[in-house]
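User: Fold this; C-alpha coordinates only.

Assistant: Input:
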Amino acid sequence: MNSSGPLFVAQEALCIYEISTIYNSCPRYLFYALLVASCVTRWTGWLADVFLGAAATYAGTAAIEAFILVASPQKRQDPAPVTIPLVPDNTTLWNDFPQLVTQTTQVMVQPASLELDGDAVLAIVVTGYLVFLPLQCWSRVLTHERARNILFYLWNIVMLAGSICALIYAASKSKTPTQYMFCYPDLPPFDQSYSDGWQSSWRTSTWNNSVWETFSNMTRWGQLGDICFNPCYNSSQILRQSTSLQSWVASKDSELADPHHFWNKVVYSRRYIYSLIILCLILNFVHLIFKFLPYRSRIPSAQIVVIWRERKEIWKNFKGELTSARARATEKDTRYREAKSATGATASQWSRARPFFSTIFIKAFLRVLADFAILFGLVFSMIISPFTIIAFVTWAEWTIYNDGPSQENPQQVGQWAYLVSIGLLLISATILTLKYRIATTSELDGEIQKLRKDLARLEERREARSRSRPASLAAPENIGDSS
Protein backbone atom coordinates (compact mmCIF):
# COMPACT_ATOMS: atom_id res chain seq x y z
CA MET A 1 0.00 0.00 0.00
CA ASN A 2 1.06 3.64 -0.48
CA SER A 3 2.64 4.70 2.82
CA SER A 4 2.55 8.40 1.88
CA GLY A 5 -1.24 8.47 1.63
CA PRO A 6 -3.96 7.88 4.20
CA LEU A 7 -4.38 4.39 5.64
CA PHE A 8 -7.95 4.26 4.29
CA VAL A 9 -10.61 6.59 2.92
CA ALA A 10 -14.35 6.87 3.39
CA GLN A 11 -16.93 7.59 0.72
CA GLU A 12 -20.71 7.78 0.65
CA ALA A 13 -22.59 4.80 -0.75
CA LEU A 14 -26.09 3.54 -1.31
CA CYS A 15 -26.95 0.19 0.27
CA ILE A 16 -29.97 -1.17 -1.52
CA TYR A 17 -32.05 -4.25 -2.14
CA GLU A 18 -32.81 -4.29 -5.85
CA ILE A 19 -36.39 -4.48 -7.03
CA SER A 20 -37.62 -8.08 -6.92
CA THR A 21 -38.10 -9.80 -10.25
CA ILE A 22 -41.87 -9.94 -9.76
CA TYR A 23 -41.93 -6.11 -9.70
CA ASN A 24 -39.43 -5.52 -12.51
CA SER A 25 -40.31 -3.53 -15.61
CA CYS A 26 -42.01 -6.29 -17.65
CA PRO A 27 -44.50 -7.39 -14.94
CA ARG A 28 -45.25 -3.76 -14.06
CA TYR A 29 -45.91 -2.76 -17.66
CA LEU A 30 -48.04 -5.86 -18.10
CA PHE A 31 -50.03 -4.78 -15.03
CA TYR A 32 -50.63 -1.33 -16.53
CA ALA A 33 -51.69 -2.95 -19.81
CA LEU A 34 -54.13 -5.23 -17.97
CA LEU A 35 -55.73 -2.23 -16.27
CA VAL A 36 -56.19 -0.49 -19.62
CA ALA A 37 -57.56 -3.69 -21.16
CA SER A 38 -60.02 -4.05 -18.24
CA CYS A 39 -61.41 -0.57 -18.90
CA VAL A 40 -61.60 -1.03 -22.67
CA THR A 41 -63.24 -4.48 -22.56
CA ARG A 42 -65.55 -3.96 -19.57
CA TRP A 43 -68.61 -4.48 -21.82
CA THR A 44 -67.48 -7.96 -22.89
CA GLY A 45 -67.98 -9.63 -19.51
CA TRP A 46 -65.72 -12.70 -19.51
CA LEU A 47 -62.78 -10.95 -21.21
CA ALA A 48 -62.84 -8.09 -18.71
CA ASP A 49 -63.03 -10.63 -15.88
CA VAL A 50 -59.80 -12.25 -17.07
CA PHE A 51 -57.91 -8.97 -17.37
CA LEU A 52 -59.31 -7.47 -14.17
CA GLY A 53 -58.78 -10.67 -12.19
CA ALA A 54 -55.13 -10.94 -13.26
CA ALA A 55 -54.48 -7.27 -12.47
CA ALA A 56 -56.26 -7.48 -9.11
CA THR A 57 -54.31 -10.54 -7.92
CA TYR A 58 -51.00 -8.91 -8.90
CA ALA A 59 -51.92 -5.70 -7.07
CA GLY A 60 -53.07 -7.77 -4.08
CA THR A 61 -49.60 -9.33 -3.80
CA ALA A 62 -48.07 -5.86 -3.77
CA ALA A 63 -50.56 -4.69 -1.11
CA ILE A 64 -49.64 -7.62 1.15
CA GLU A 65 -45.95 -6.74 0.82
CA ALA A 66 -46.80 -3.14 1.75
CA PHE A 67 -48.49 -4.42 4.92
CA ILE A 68 -45.40 -6.45 5.82
CA LEU A 69 -42.94 -3.61 5.13
CA VAL A 70 -44.83 -1.24 7.43
CA ALA A 71 -45.52 -3.85 10.12
CA SER A 72 -41.87 -5.00 10.28
CA PRO A 73 -39.64 -1.94 9.83
CA GLN A 74 -35.90 -2.35 9.61
CA LYS A 75 -34.28 -2.24 13.04
CA ARG A 76 -31.47 0.28 13.11
CA GLN A 77 -28.54 0.40 15.48
CA ASP A 78 -27.59 3.56 17.33
CA PRO A 79 -25.29 5.84 15.31
CA ALA A 80 -21.63 5.63 16.26
CA PRO A 81 -18.64 7.84 15.28
CA VAL A 82 -15.77 6.53 13.22
CA THR A 83 -12.52 8.49 13.02
CA ILE A 84 -11.07 8.68 9.51
CA PRO A 85 -7.80 10.07 8.10
CA LEU A 86 -8.09 13.67 6.91
CA VAL A 87 -8.25 13.94 3.13
CA PRO A 88 -8.01 17.45 1.58
CA ASP A 89 -10.38 18.67 -1.14
CA ASN A 90 -7.58 18.93 -3.71
CA THR A 91 -6.75 15.24 -3.50
CA THR A 92 -6.16 13.19 -6.64
CA LEU A 93 -8.40 10.41 -5.33
CA TRP A 94 -11.58 11.93 -6.78
CA ASN A 95 -11.26 9.98 -10.03
CA ASP A 96 -11.34 6.65 -8.19
CA PHE A 97 -13.67 7.67 -5.35
CA PRO A 98 -16.44 9.92 -6.77
CA GLN A 99 -18.22 10.14 -3.39
CA LEU A 100 -15.09 10.70 -1.31
CA VAL A 101 -15.47 12.25 2.15
CA THR A 102 -13.00 15.11 2.56
CA GLN A 103 -12.15 17.89 4.99
CA THR A 104 -13.30 15.95 8.05
CA THR A 105 -11.88 13.44 10.49
CA GLN A 106 -15.12 11.81 11.61
CA VAL A 107 -18.26 10.28 10.14
CA MET A 108 -21.33 8.83 11.84
CA VAL A 109 -22.05 5.19 11.03
CA GLN A 110 -25.54 3.74 11.36
CA PRO A 111 -26.05 0.62 9.20
CA ALA A 112 -29.21 0.79 7.11
CA SER A 113 -30.41 -0.10 3.63
CA LEU A 114 -33.04 0.97 1.13
CA GLU A 115 -35.75 -1.48 0.05
CA LEU A 116 -36.42 -0.52 -3.56
CA ASP A 117 -39.44 -2.81 -3.65
CA GLY A 118 -41.20 0.01 -1.83
CA ASP A 119 -41.17 2.18 -4.97
CA ALA A 120 -42.56 -0.59 -7.17
CA VAL A 121 -45.20 -1.55 -4.59
CA LEU A 122 -46.25 2.11 -4.31
CA ALA A 123 -46.61 2.37 -8.09
CA ILE A 124 -48.70 -0.81 -8.29
CA VAL A 125 -51.13 -0.41 -5.39
CA VAL A 126 -51.82 3.31 -5.90
CA THR A 127 -52.33 2.84 -9.64
CA GLY A 128 -54.61 -0.12 -8.94
CA TYR A 129 -56.66 1.91 -6.48
CA LEU A 130 -56.87 4.89 -8.82
CA VAL A 131 -58.33 2.56 -11.48
CA PHE A 132 -60.50 0.24 -9.35
CA LEU A 133 -62.32 3.08 -7.58
CA PRO A 134 -63.44 4.92 -10.76
CA LEU A 135 -64.47 1.58 -12.27
CA GLN A 136 -66.79 1.05 -9.33
CA CYS A 137 -68.12 4.59 -9.72
CA TRP A 138 -68.63 4.65 -13.48
CA SER A 139 -69.08 1.10 -14.73
CA ARG A 140 -72.58 -0.32 -14.46
CA VAL A 141 -71.47 -3.42 -16.36
CA LEU A 142 -68.92 -4.41 -13.73
CA THR A 143 -71.07 -3.50 -10.72
CA HIS A 144 -74.62 -4.37 -11.76
CA GLU A 145 -74.64 -7.41 -9.45
CA ARG A 146 -74.55 -7.14 -5.66
CA ALA A 147 -71.84 -9.80 -5.42
CA ARG A 148 -69.62 -7.88 -7.86
CA ASN A 149 -70.27 -4.67 -5.95
CA ILE A 150 -69.28 -6.32 -2.65
CA LEU A 151 -66.17 -7.74 -4.33
CA PHE A 152 -65.24 -4.29 -5.62
CA TYR A 153 -65.75 -2.78 -2.17
CA LEU A 154 -63.55 -5.43 -0.52
CA TRP A 155 -60.88 -5.06 -3.15
CA ASN A 156 -60.91 -1.27 -2.92
CA ILE A 157 -60.50 -1.54 0.86
CA VAL A 158 -57.45 -3.79 0.36
CA MET A 159 -56.02 -1.40 -2.22
CA LEU A 160 -56.69 1.63 -0.01
CA ALA A 161 -54.98 -0.02 2.97
CA GLY A 162 -52.07 -1.09 0.75
CA SER A 163 -51.77 2.43 -0.68
CA ILE A 164 -51.69 3.99 2.79
CA CYS A 165 -49.01 1.52 3.93
CA ALA A 166 -46.97 2.08 0.76
CA LEU A 167 -47.17 5.86 1.18
CA ILE A 168 -46.10 5.59 4.83
CA TYR A 169 -43.16 3.40 3.87
CA ALA A 170 -42.18 5.74 1.01
CA ALA A 171 -42.14 8.69 3.43
CA SER A 172 -39.74 6.81 5.72
CA LYS A 173 -37.18 6.29 2.94
CA SER A 174 -36.05 9.91 3.07
CA LYS A 175 -35.06 9.35 6.72
CA THR A 176 -32.52 6.65 5.82
CA PRO A 177 -29.12 7.73 7.24
CA THR A 178 -26.13 8.28 5.00
CA GLN A 179 -24.10 5.12 4.46
CA TYR A 180 -20.32 4.92 4.14
CA MET A 181 -17.82 2.41 2.81
CA PHE A 182 -14.19 2.34 3.91
CA CYS A 183 -11.52 1.37 1.36
CA TYR A 184 -7.79 1.34 0.77
CA PRO A 185 -6.90 4.39 -1.36
CA ASP A 186 -4.98 2.17 -3.83
CA LEU A 187 -7.90 -0.26 -4.29
CA PRO A 188 -11.03 1.61 -5.51
CA PRO A 189 -14.30 -0.35 -5.26
CA PHE A 190 -16.49 -1.61 -8.06
CA ASP A 191 -19.53 0.45 -8.99
CA GLN A 192 -21.70 -2.32 -7.53
CA SER A 193 -20.76 -5.01 -5.03
CA TYR A 194 -22.93 -7.66 -3.38
CA SER A 195 -22.83 -8.84 0.20
CA ASP A 196 -21.59 -12.38 0.86
CA GLY A 197 -23.37 -12.35 4.20
CA TRP A 198 -22.23 -10.47 7.27
CA GLN A 199 -19.78 -12.23 9.57
CA SER A 200 -19.84 -11.41 13.27
CA SER A 201 -16.02 -11.34 13.33
CA TRP A 202 -16.00 -8.26 11.08
CA ARG A 203 -17.16 -6.14 13.99
CA THR A 204 -14.90 -6.59 16.99
CA SER A 205 -16.36 -3.99 19.37
CA THR A 206 -17.23 -0.46 18.24
CA TRP A 207 -17.47 0.52 14.60
CA ASN A 208 -14.43 2.74 15.03
CA ASN A 209 -12.27 -0.11 16.37
CA SER A 210 -13.57 -2.52 13.73
CA VAL A 211 -12.66 -0.20 10.85
CA TRP A 212 -9.19 0.62 12.14
CA GLU A 213 -8.35 -2.99 13.07
CA THR A 214 -9.47 -4.19 9.62
CA PHE A 215 -7.24 -1.79 7.70
CA SER A 216 -4.33 -2.14 10.12
CA ASN A 217 -4.26 -5.91 9.63
CA MET A 218 -3.99 -7.28 6.07
CA THR A 219 -5.12 -10.70 7.26
CA ARG A 220 -8.39 -9.33 8.61
CA TRP A 221 -8.90 -7.23 5.49
CA GLY A 222 -8.38 -10.32 3.34
CA GLN A 223 -11.26 -12.03 5.15
CA LEU A 224 -13.73 -9.40 3.97
CA GLY A 225 -16.20 -10.47 1.32
CA ASP A 226 -15.44 -7.30 -0.62
CA ILE A 227 -12.60 -4.87 -1.34
CA CYS A 228 -14.14 -2.30 1.00
CA PHE A 229 -15.58 -2.47 4.49
CA ASN A 230 -19.35 -1.87 4.32
CA PRO A 231 -21.05 -1.49 7.73
CA CYS A 232 -24.44 -1.48 5.97
CA TYR A 233 -23.99 -5.20 5.29
CA ASN A 234 -24.74 -5.63 8.99
CA SER A 235 -28.38 -4.58 8.35
CA SER A 236 -31.20 -6.93 7.37
CA GLN A 237 -34.67 -6.93 5.84
CA ILE A 238 -37.52 -9.29 6.72
CA LEU A 239 -38.38 -10.28 3.13
CA ARG A 240 -34.81 -10.53 1.77
CA GLN A 241 -31.74 -12.71 2.02
CA SER A 242 -28.61 -10.93 3.23
CA THR A 243 -26.74 -11.88 0.05
CA SER A 244 -29.14 -9.81 -2.10
CA LEU A 245 -27.99 -6.58 -0.41
CA GLN A 246 -25.63 -4.53 -2.54
CA SER A 247 -23.49 -1.46 -2.08
CA TRP A 248 -23.64 1.02 -4.90
CA VAL A 249 -21.28 3.92 -5.65
CA ALA A 250 -22.73 6.54 -7.99
CA SER A 251 -20.55 8.40 -10.47
CA LYS A 252 -20.29 12.19 -10.42
CA ASP A 253 -22.64 12.55 -13.40
CA SER A 254 -25.28 10.22 -12.02
CA GLU A 255 -28.62 11.40 -10.65
CA LEU A 256 -27.61 9.58 -7.48
CA ALA A 257 -24.28 11.39 -7.16
CA ASP A 258 -25.70 13.04 -4.08
CA PRO A 259 -28.16 10.49 -2.60
CA HIS A 260 -29.87 13.00 -0.34
CA HIS A 261 -30.20 15.53 -3.16
CA PHE A 262 -31.97 12.90 -5.26
CA TRP A 263 -34.38 11.94 -2.49
CA ASN A 264 -35.07 15.62 -1.79
CA LYS A 265 -36.12 16.02 -5.44
CA VAL A 266 -38.40 13.01 -5.10
CA VAL A 267 -39.94 14.42 -1.92
CA TYR A 268 -40.44 17.81 -3.57
CA SER A 269 -42.19 16.37 -6.62
CA ARG A 270 -44.20 14.04 -4.37
CA ARG A 271 -46.14 16.99 -2.96
CA TYR A 272 -47.83 17.77 -6.27
CA ILE A 273 -48.50 14.14 -7.14
CA TYR A 274 -50.00 13.38 -3.72
CA SER A 275 -52.17 16.51 -3.88
CA LEU A 276 -53.50 15.34 -7.24
CA ILE A 277 -54.19 11.85 -5.85
CA ILE A 278 -56.06 13.25 -2.84
CA LEU A 279 -58.20 15.46 -5.09
CA CYS A 280 -59.00 12.48 -7.33
CA LEU A 281 -59.95 10.28 -4.37
CA ILE A 282 -62.19 12.97 -2.86
CA LEU A 283 -64.07 13.40 -6.15
CA ASN A 284 -64.57 9.66 -6.57
CA PHE A 285 -65.64 9.23 -2.95
CA VAL A 286 -68.22 12.00 -3.39
CA HIS A 287 -69.39 10.19 -6.53
CA LEU A 288 -69.80 6.95 -4.56
CA ILE A 289 -71.65 8.69 -1.74
CA PHE A 290 -74.15 10.35 -4.09
CA LYS A 291 -74.52 7.06 -5.95
CA PHE A 292 -76.04 5.39 -2.92
CA LEU A 293 -77.75 8.32 -1.17
CA PRO A 294 -81.58 8.40 -1.38
CA TYR A 295 -81.45 11.63 -3.40
CA ARG A 296 -83.24 12.08 -6.71
CA SER A 297 -80.86 14.05 -8.88
CA ARG A 298 -81.80 15.69 -12.17
CA ILE A 299 -78.53 14.44 -13.72
CA PRO A 300 -79.72 11.70 -16.12
CA SER A 301 -76.60 9.52 -16.02
CA ALA A 302 -73.07 9.20 -14.70
CA GLN A 303 -71.71 8.74 -18.23
CA ILE A 304 -70.05 11.75 -19.81
CA VAL A 305 -71.50 10.96 -23.26
CA VAL A 306 -75.08 11.02 -21.92
CA ILE A 307 -74.42 14.20 -19.95
CA TRP A 308 -73.06 15.94 -23.05
CA ARG A 309 -76.01 14.76 -25.17
CA GLU A 310 -78.53 15.95 -22.57
CA ARG A 311 -76.68 19.15 -21.62
CA LYS A 312 -79.42 21.48 -22.94
CA GLU A 313 -82.12 19.55 -21.11
CA ILE A 314 -80.08 19.61 -17.88
CA TRP A 315 -79.63 23.40 -18.12
CA LYS A 316 -83.33 23.80 -18.94
CA ASN A 317 -84.27 21.80 -15.82
CA PHE A 318 -81.94 23.87 -13.62
CA LYS A 319 -83.30 27.14 -14.98
CA GLY A 320 -86.92 25.94 -14.94
CA GLU A 321 -86.79 24.82 -11.30
CA LEU A 322 -85.40 28.19 -10.15
CA THR A 323 -87.89 30.12 -12.29
CA SER A 324 -90.82 28.05 -10.99
CA ALA A 325 -89.68 28.46 -7.38
CA ARG A 326 -89.28 32.21 -7.82
CA ALA A 327 -92.75 32.48 -9.40
CA ARG A 328 -94.37 30.57 -6.54
CA ALA A 329 -92.46 32.61 -3.95
CA THR A 330 -93.40 35.88 -5.70
CA GLU A 331 -97.07 34.86 -5.84
CA LYS A 332 -97.05 34.02 -2.16
CA ASP A 333 -95.32 37.30 -1.32
CA THR A 334 -97.80 39.25 -3.48
CA ARG A 335 -100.72 37.85 -1.51
CA TYR A 336 -98.91 38.76 1.69
CA ARG A 337 -98.31 42.38 0.55
CA GLU A 338 -101.92 42.74 -0.61
CA ALA A 339 -103.09 41.61 2.77
CA LYS A 340 -100.79 44.16 4.39
CA SER A 341 -101.95 46.95 2.06
CA ALA A 342 -105.53 46.30 3.10
CA THR A 343 -104.55 47.22 6.64
CA GLY A 344 -102.90 50.46 5.46
CA ALA A 345 -99.28 49.37 5.93
CA THR A 346 -96.69 50.54 3.35
CA ALA A 347 -94.38 48.06 1.54
CA SER A 348 -90.67 48.30 2.32
CA GLN A 349 -87.70 47.96 -0.04
CA TRP A 350 -87.02 44.57 1.53
CA SER A 351 -90.34 43.24 0.17
CA ARG A 352 -88.98 43.15 -3.39
CA ALA A 353 -86.06 40.88 -2.40
CA ARG A 354 -88.13 38.76 -0.04
CA PRO A 355 -89.03 36.05 -2.67
CA PHE A 356 -85.34 35.21 -3.11
CA PHE A 357 -85.03 34.49 0.61
CA SER A 358 -88.22 32.53 0.94
CA THR A 359 -88.19 28.87 1.99
CA ILE A 360 -89.53 27.79 -1.40
CA PHE A 361 -86.75 29.49 -3.38
CA ILE A 362 -83.95 28.50 -0.96
CA LYS A 363 -84.96 24.82 -1.16
CA ALA A 364 -85.02 24.95 -4.96
CA PHE A 365 -81.70 26.78 -5.02
CA LEU A 366 -80.06 24.21 -2.72
CA ARG A 367 -81.41 21.38 -4.86
CA VAL A 368 -80.03 22.95 -8.04
CA LEU A 369 -76.75 23.65 -6.23
CA ALA A 370 -76.51 19.99 -5.15
CA ASP A 371 -77.23 18.81 -8.71
CA PHE A 372 -74.64 21.23 -10.06
CA ALA A 373 -72.10 19.94 -7.52
CA ILE A 374 -72.85 16.38 -8.63
CA LEU A 375 -72.50 17.39 -12.28
CA PHE A 376 -69.25 19.23 -11.62
CA GLY A 377 -67.89 16.31 -9.59
CA LEU A 378 -68.80 13.79 -12.30
CA VAL A 379 -67.29 15.77 -15.16
CA PHE A 380 -64.22 16.83 -13.21
CA SER A 381 -63.57 13.33 -11.85
CA MET A 382 -63.82 11.86 -15.36
CA ILE A 383 -61.22 14.40 -16.49
CA ILE A 384 -58.95 14.40 -13.45
CA SER A 385 -58.91 10.64 -12.81
CA PRO A 386 -57.22 9.60 -16.09
CA PHE A 387 -54.85 12.56 -15.83
CA THR A 388 -53.96 11.61 -12.24
CA ILE A 389 -53.29 8.00 -13.22
CA ILE A 390 -51.03 9.03 -16.11
CA ALA A 391 -49.19 11.61 -13.99
CA PHE A 392 -48.67 9.22 -11.09
CA VAL A 393 -47.48 6.31 -13.26
CA THR A 394 -45.05 8.65 -15.05
CA TRP A 395 -43.71 9.97 -11.74
CA ALA A 396 -43.48 6.51 -10.17
CA GLU A 397 -41.69 5.02 -13.18
CA TRP A 398 -39.27 7.96 -13.23
CA THR A 399 -38.46 7.28 -9.58
CA ILE A 400 -37.99 3.55 -10.22
CA TYR A 401 -35.82 4.29 -13.27
CA ASN A 402 -33.50 6.38 -11.10
CA ASP A 403 -33.32 3.57 -8.55
CA GLY A 404 -30.94 1.81 -10.92
CA PRO A 405 -30.95 -0.89 -13.60
CA SER A 406 -33.40 -3.78 -13.42
CA GLN A 407 -32.34 -6.99 -11.74
CA GLU A 408 -33.35 -9.00 -14.82
CA ASN A 409 -33.63 -8.28 -18.53
CA PRO A 410 -36.91 -8.75 -20.46
CA GLN A 411 -35.60 -11.85 -22.26
CA GLN A 412 -35.09 -13.73 -19.00
CA VAL A 413 -37.78 -16.19 -17.99
CA GLY A 414 -38.48 -14.41 -14.72
CA GLN A 415 -39.82 -11.50 -16.77
CA TRP A 416 -41.67 -12.94 -19.75
CA ALA A 417 -43.18 -15.79 -17.70
CA TYR A 418 -45.92 -13.43 -16.43
CA LEU A 419 -46.94 -12.49 -19.97
CA VAL A 420 -47.07 -16.15 -20.96
CA SER A 421 -49.20 -17.02 -17.91
CA ILE A 422 -51.72 -14.30 -18.81
CA GLY A 423 -51.79 -15.59 -22.39
CA LEU A 424 -52.46 -19.15 -21.24
CA LEU A 425 -55.17 -17.91 -18.87
CA LEU A 426 -56.79 -16.00 -21.74
CA ILE A 427 -56.71 -19.09 -23.97
CA SER A 428 -58.30 -21.19 -21.22
CA ALA A 429 -61.03 -18.60 -20.63
CA THR A 430 -61.73 -18.43 -24.37
CA ILE A 431 -62.14 -22.20 -24.62
CA LEU A 432 -64.45 -22.28 -21.59
CA THR A 433 -66.53 -19.47 -23.06
CA LEU A 434 -66.99 -21.51 -26.26
CA LYS A 435 -67.80 -24.71 -24.38
CA TYR A 436 -71.42 -24.80 -25.60
CA ARG A 437 -70.32 -24.50 -29.22
CA ILE A 438 -67.91 -27.44 -29.02
CA ALA A 439 -69.89 -29.57 -26.54
CA THR A 440 -71.48 -32.89 -27.56
CA THR A 441 -75.24 -33.50 -27.48
CA SER A 442 -75.01 -35.50 -24.27
CA GLU A 443 -73.00 -32.73 -22.63
CA LEU A 444 -75.63 -30.18 -23.66
CA ASP A 445 -78.42 -32.38 -22.24
CA GLY A 446 -76.55 -32.67 -18.96
CA GLU A 447 -75.99 -28.92 -18.84
CA ILE A 448 -79.69 -28.26 -19.50
CA GLN A 449 -80.69 -30.56 -16.62
CA LYS A 450 -78.22 -28.84 -14.32
CA LEU A 451 -79.49 -25.38 -15.32
CA ARG A 452 -83.10 -26.45 -14.68
CA LYS A 453 -82.21 -27.64 -11.18
CA ASP A 454 -80.30 -24.41 -10.50
CA LEU A 455 -83.25 -22.36 -11.80
CA ALA A 456 -85.71 -24.24 -9.57
CA ARG A 457 -83.46 -23.71 -6.56
CA LEU A 458 -83.17 -19.97 -7.31
CA GLU A 459 -86.94 -19.64 -7.68
CA GLU A 460 -87.45 -21.34 -4.31
CA ARG A 461 -84.96 -19.01 -2.68
CA ARG A 462 -86.64 -16.00 -4.28
CA GLU A 463 -90.08 -17.06 -3.03
CA ALA A 464 -88.75 -17.73 0.47
CA ARG A 465 -87.13 -14.28 0.59
CA SER A 466 -90.31 -12.60 -0.66
CA ARG A 467 -92.39 -14.28 2.05
CA SER A 468 -89.94 -13.33 4.80
CA ARG A 469 -89.78 -9.64 3.86
CA PRO A 470 -92.84 -7.37 3.63
CA ALA A 471 -93.22 -5.60 0.34
CA SER A 472 -93.29 -2.21 2.07
CA LEU A 473 -89.79 -2.76 3.45
CA ALA A 474 -88.24 -3.92 0.19
CA ALA A 475 -85.41 -1.61 -0.86
CA PRO A 476 -85.41 -0.36 -4.44
CA GLU A 477 -82.86 -1.86 -6.76
CA ASN A 478 -81.46 1.53 -7.88
CA ILE A 479 -81.49 4.52 -5.56
CA GLY A 480 -81.23 7.90 -7.18
CA ASP A 481 -80.89 8.95 -10.80
CA SER A 482 -77.25 9.90 -10.27
CA SER A 483 -76.19 6.24 -10.15
